[in-house]
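Minutes, project check-in
Item: structure for the 278-residue chain
Input as provided by the requester:
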Amino acid sequence: MKFDIYQTITDRIIDQLEKGLIPWEKTWSGISGGAFNRISRKPYSLLNQMLLKHRGEYATFKQWQNLGGHIRKGARAEMVVYWNIIEKEEVNKDGEKVVVGIPILKYYNVFHISDVEGVTPLTTNETEVKPIESAEKLIIDYVTREHINYKEIVSDKAYYSPITDSVVVPTKKQYQNINDFYATAFHEITHSTGNKSRLNRITSVAAFGSQEYSKEELVAEIGSATLMNLLNLETSKTFRNTTAYIQSWLRVLKNDKRFIVSAASKAEKAVNYILGNQ
């Protein structure tokens, strides 16, 4: 049977969700917390952070070998995916021959350092952070730059309105854990990146449980979790991670093997847009 990379990715995410684990809640803060490549010292993409089982150092068989290490007997490789652009000649609407780049999802195998003998783990110096100040600055910088109408009001709802380009969140005093406030705020500002004036991801108002709704919610969830972890903020599960949401994600994942790849890619673009890295 031909290997299906999209189905393999989807099956791994489904397996975690069915166990009650939320894969996008993993830490993705690079060398200090998430999974990264031992050689380049760069953190893996958001999608790969969800797929990889451990935090810390990963490398290919050959990379570990070049460092003088060898893989323990019985160790199992994990999959890292990436986009490879294939150039193809096509004829455009004017009848002219043009070369276009077609993205193809590929993969390679890596091993975690816990499966390697003969290599000493890297030591890292984690910097002290001021999470609340940094979270507040992130929100203010983004909404000011994008001229978004951002409000904290006494309410039992948090939402983003693409019509008025406004974000509304309950006040900080309504949260028992202040970090949960920021998780909610980050969720909503991630939604705002989908405005047609930005990344043009939100095209209509979708019904709860629909594929379009579930995908946008998943983009916002991954975006929020990523921003929280980039700022070293830990949070308890928020009201969005209910059984209804998990079942909604599972239903769509089981019907669309490209769903999680697309959502993770859109979330990464949203986070970079919020951070001004686009």
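Outcome recorded: The mean pLDDT is 85.
No further action items on this chain.
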